[in-house]
Amino acid sequence: MISLPSKEHCTGCGACAFICSRNCIVMEEDSMGVILPVIDSSNCVECNRCMSVCPILSACKLHAPEKVFAARSLDSFTETHSASGGLASELYRDAIRSGWSIVGAAQQDDFSVRLELTNDLTATERFRNSKYIFSTAYKLYPDIQKLLKGKGKAMVIGLPCQIAAIRKVFRDTPDLFYVDIVCHGTTPHRYLLQHVRNIEKRESKKAFEVSFRDPAFGTGTFTFSVKDKDGNTFYSKRTKDGDTYQYAYHRWISYRENCYHCPFARKERVGDISLADYPGLGRHIPFPYRRGNISCVLVNTNRGAAMIKQLIQQNSVFAVERPVEEAIAGNGQLRRPTSKTKKRFAFEKTMQRNACDFEKAVRPLMVKGLLGERIRGISRLPLRVVRKILKSVR
């Protein structure tokens, strides 16, 4: 009997749906907006192919990082317009120069995100920067299949669960180079769409593009912005200033359930290279260079080592080798999955009671949470500074 992972563990990768020759499996949203496989058991012959390609039921071989670099693109535009350092863009450029195709996450017209395959270098603009939302990978599989049949190669950059699924479906072919992004979790598309529609209603304008780390405000500020069709920003707000979507994401409230049980949140990685922000940089040994817009690059395989060496020799990136222990100690996602908090449990209950109304579920948690954060911030200040603040507000 077919038994796919439960909601607590299914990543929504869709490998099972793609591999099923009888089309018994479709990917659908559940009542909470989470995309999961649905099986038509009446047409299933129990061949078990779906279970054999599932990266949760049949794990891939993982690799402990051999080296770690603090790195950034030497192209100033790429560096400042990327989430952290622009290494993904440099990897894409190198792949295109080598005649490869590239795979990345691109925002769609309805603000959903999906993995796309292309050989067009200008697509890197759509792939660039963080997208704090679930991205569909399963629509990509036919394109990769066609590419490989034509003897093509590709640089694939995605979340660890997506990389694992692609490796399972295409049996670790050497014609695909894998880069996994160290991930905290993904939020269902439905929540983002609700948030954008509320902003549109409040501002009386139509959204054309959203950004989760708008470069115009500095990617390190984590500013959520919304632009109209003319490229004008009509909404922008940081997490700490009260954007509900960013607050829910960065306070671990709104992820898919499986993200809290992620088997890929560990130091052993699924990609040839892993990319991340670099919290903790300089804690083990000094880092006497500029720290803004810096990527943590984990080199996990010989192929990964050769690729990074090539980028350095081409003067595409600035890179300084760092202790592996520094990267692991500074990034919790290299040690364990995101933890479920009291806010997460409260969010789940409110969503179920209020017909999956995202804003209604998050706002009271955010108001109380931000107030607490500000009070704690003030309490850490020297007494003389606190007295000065209190005096100024009397």
Automatic annotation (TrEMBL):
Name the domain of life. Bacteria
What are the transmembrane regions?
none
* A Pfam family per the record: Fer4_7
Instruction: Kindly list the GO molecular function terms attached to this UniProt entry.
Output: iron-sulfur cluster binding; metal ion binding
The alphabetized UniProt keywords are:
Iron, Iron-sulfur, Metal-binding
Every 4Fe-4S ferredoxin-type domain range: 1-30, 35-65
Protein name (Swiss-Prot/TrEMBL): Coenzyme F420 hydrogenase/dehydrogenase, beta subunit C-terminal domain
